[in-house]
Amino acid sequence: MFLYGFMQRAFQASILISLIAPMLGLFLILRRQSLMADTLSHVSLAGVALGLLLGYDPTWMNILVVVIVAGILEYLRKVYRTYSEISIAILMSGGMAVALVLMGLNDSGATVSIQQFLFGSIVTISVQQVWMLLILTLIIIVLYSVFRKPMYTLTFDEETAYTAGLPIQFMSVMFNILTGVTIALIMPIVGALLVSAILILPAAISIRLSKSFNGVIFIGIGVALIGMIMGLVGSYYLGTPPGATITLIYISIFSLLAVFK
Amino acid sequence: MQYIKVDDLAFHYEDEPVLENICFEVNAGDFAMLTGENGAAKSTLLRNILGLLKPTKGSVTLSKKNTEGEKLVVGYIPQQVASFNAGFPSTVLELVNSGRYPRGKWFKKLDKEDKEHVRKSLESVGMWEMRNKKIGELSGGQKQRISIARVFAMDPDLFILDEPTTGMDVNSREEFYKLLQHASEYHDKGILMVTHDHEEIRHYANKHIELIRKEGSPWRCFSMDSCKERSKHPSSFH
């Protein structure tokens, strides 16, 4: 299995995603933005479709579109403060609608590429993508180490964070943008439909296993590594889609915990 | 030194006036209680002071510096803090440690002095033994106590507290008021506290701000400084 270059790249990408996912996932859960990952993955489909239609690199176009929408999401979250899920519904359906319209306008047979982004494929991971993921992982680890305390305070309670002098608006937008870039980069690997599961489930599992904030991150990384590696191996031998296989492993762990803990 | 100055503040929810003609000050060394009936917009007033809401009219001035010329640190306990983020994955100690972050520790490790502050704060509310518990496992009263400990750990120059003693027994409340009184008298802290326990606190506080209204009108301010009337008495409202 490891003799194949695409499998080596798939494992490298999986390890990197395992490091990122619990850090972002925990904040997404605690900020009640679990569905934001889903929204941005739908929007990123529109970014890919736009890139393919205009003939630009879909990855970069995708990042650009997702970053813009991540900013809009924060604005809508403020406008609909009490019903923040409205922003999710608007942008999720809007992203999907734009993607479908753009695909309809594109008559160059790019549907196959869109399907790869929709369901993900380990054979599509390029060396460039692994490098981009590595850079993103390093950025997220550094940002987490530096901004852990402000983010902890912001996530616990935005109002007390504001009174403590934190630039909560700026931090929220930056967090959304970082999440957007991450989704844009991992979406081609795991598929737009399962990005949120890959980001959210490791943290959702580790929250049940740890008392402390840092503990959740460390256990989450362990859970993510187990799920991603088992999922990839399973997907290779069973010929199943990797994103779906990984998600099912996470859900199995989650169910076992729910029964025994 | 003046920490809070509220000058002719009015606040409307959409088009409905809820606060009007609110004027008072809280200075370093003041222990001010803010009272009023249920629905008197006391929390709304605090949120205006903190900048979380924008006054429709008038102004709120929050000092930028403390008595020593350093950046003013504000410790805020919102109403019903005990219902906070119950699933938040944090130990009591982690949460109370976070009270030290605004003291120049956002990007630095907590030192011995910080840890001592945190220990004393937890001890002052009787929660040191519970420091390794997950906050979600605490009772409502215990959550209230650690919220207080977090603010004490912050050692703020100005305390803004919205019914902080909800769920606490009489003895704990009295201990808490004594701590606040000591902080204002001996450490020049400013305190503005929303409360319904007017009778209990009046022995400790030196200033009383009451929100009061005539039927059908917005809430207005009746402020007493050491029981000395400073603004219009409600009977003179027209």
TrEMBL record, chain A:
Coiled-coil zones: none
SUPFAM superfamilies the record matches:
ABC transporter involved in vitamin B12 uptake, BtuC
Principal cellular location given in the protein's record = membrane
Pfam families, alphabetized: ABC-3
Keyword Transmembrane helix found? yes
List cellular component terms (GO). Answer: ATP-binding cassette (ABC) transporter complex
Q: Name one GO biological process term.
A: response to zinc ion
Indicate how the chain sits in the lipid bilayer.
Multi-pass membrane protein
Q: Where in the cell is it found?
A: Cell membrane; Membrane
For this protein, the parts annotated as crossing the membrane are 6-28, 60-76, 88-105, 117-147, 159-177, 183-204, 216-237, 243-260
**Does the keyword field hold Metal-binding?**
no
The entry's keywords: Membrane, Transmembrane, Transmembrane helix, Transport
- Which family, according to UniProt? Belongs to the ABC-3 integral membrane protein family.
Which PANTHER family would you find in this protein's record? ABC-TRANSPORTER METAL-BINDING PROTEIN, METAL TRANSPORT SYSTEM MEMBRANE PROTEIN TM_0125-RELATED
This chain belongs to the protein called Zinc transport system permease protein
UniProtKB/TrEMBL annotation, chain B:
Q: Which UniProt keywords apply?
A: ATP-binding, Nucleotide-binding, Transport
A GO MF term: ATP hydrolysis activity
Query: Highest taxon of the source?
Result: Bacteria
Span of domain ABC transporter: 4-238
Alphabetical list of Pfam families matching this protein: ABC_tran
Which InterPro entries does this entry report, sorted A to Z?
AAA+_ATPase (IPR003593), ABC_transporter-like_ATP-bd (IPR003439), ABC_transporter-like_CS (IPR017871), Metal_Ion_Import_ABC (IPR050153), P-loop_NTPase (IPR027417)
Question: What protein name applies here?
Answer: Zinc ABC transporter ATP-binding protein
Gene source species: Alkalibacterium putridalgicola
